Amino acid sequence: MLNKMKIKPLNTSILFLIFNRPDTTQRVFNEIKKVQPKQLFVVSDGARSEDEKEIVNETRKIIDQVDWDCEVHKNYSDKNLGCKIRVSSGINWFFENVEQGIILEDDCLPSQSFFWFCEELLNKYKNNEKIMMISGDNFQLGKNKVSCDYYFSKRNFHIWGWATWKKAWGKYNLEMKEWPKIKNSKILEETYLNKKVLKEKKEVFENTYSNLIDTWDYQWLFTCILNKGLSIIPNKNLVSNIGFGKKSTHAKDAHNPFSKIKNHELKFPLTHPEKIFFNEKADDFTENYKKAFIFNFFVKIKVLVYNLYKK
């Protein structure tokens, strides 16, 4: 059996999004270093104040630890652009230089399998217009496993460690110009059959369109839904979000059950589905659990026990 995790260097380019968290940045960088990518693109936002400059610079210095044969490309802002502009412009810059690649934020800790999983599937599906992205996230707590190493989703486009192609990102529109036409169409209703979820998505998209949320990712979700795209979801969770807490822009609840869900390794070669089809059962399960995480204390305890058991 070929163990792809022993093959170096990684041929796929990586975009690393960093800011002001040297502790999490160092941990993610350490995992990137193990696969020794040939190209590393780094995007950093500027400090919001004079006091923040020191920690932003400290975080940037971690990239100077690259000691393997690697082209390092830096895109560092002198001023603070915010999450919406800095991340979206950083991804735009990335795909001005590469045809496909892996995207990691400074709080998304990948397993080693994540890199090879993305590389293999980027190459396998690069000519398939239907597939918009490859995710490293699985929020099913080991349940609803499929017979292969991944499945296809039309509702969940998780971006805590992901990969995509220039052609797919080319459909992205930060301002969501199509929203006024789409919000009362059948596209959303055909995607989100649960009326409560449908209502929530419409509210999120409306608020994003109205610039009430400083973010870039809801626009990407909207792009994928608008184009009736699919995402690839691994059968095991491959990326752990280690950034929940006060320093996070959005995920400030350190006790959130999504925080630090264990990442796993896969066995290679991968087992591929015979057909490309939307796994409705898996999507329903994830959708229900995501809602339960927010409201159900007992589910939170279950996640904690699950993580402790896996350790």
What does this molecule look like?
- With 311 residues, this protein is an alpha/beta fold.
- The protein has a single domain (4-310), classed as Alpha-Beta Complex (Spore Coat Polysaccharide Biosynthesis Protein SpsA, Chain A), CATH 3.90.550.10.
- 39% of the residues lie in helices and 15% in strands.
- It has helices at residues 22-35, 50-61, 82-95, 112-124, 166-169, 179-182, 187-191, 195-209, 217-226, 280-295, 297-310; strands at 13-18, 39-44, 71-76, 100-105, 108-110, 131-135, 150-153, 162-165, 230-234, 239-241.
- The strands form two sheets. Strands 3-2-1-4-8-6-9-7 form an eight-stranded mixed beta sheet, with helices on both faces. Strands 5-10 form a two-stranded antiparallel sheet.
- It is globular.
- Residues 250-254 and 293-303 have low confidence and may be disordered.
Write down the CATH class: Alpha Beta
Measured as a percent range, the helix fraction is 25-40%
Radius of gyration: 19 Å
Tell me the strand percentage band. Answer: 15-25%
Please count the beta strands (DSSP E, at least 2 residues each): 10
Give the SSE map:
Blueprint: E1 13-18, H1 22-35, E2 39-44, H2 50-61, E3 71-76, H3 82-95, E4 100-105, E5 108-110, H4 112-124, E6 131-135, E7 150-153, E8 162-165, H5 166-169, H6 179-182, H7 187-191, H8 195-209, H9 217-226, E9 230-234, E10 239-241, H10 280-295, H11 297-310
Parallel strand pairs: 1-2, 1-4, 2-3, 6-9
Antiparallel strand pairs: 4-8, 5-10, 6-8, 7-9
Pick out its properties:
311 residues; eight-stranded mixed beta sheet; 39% helix
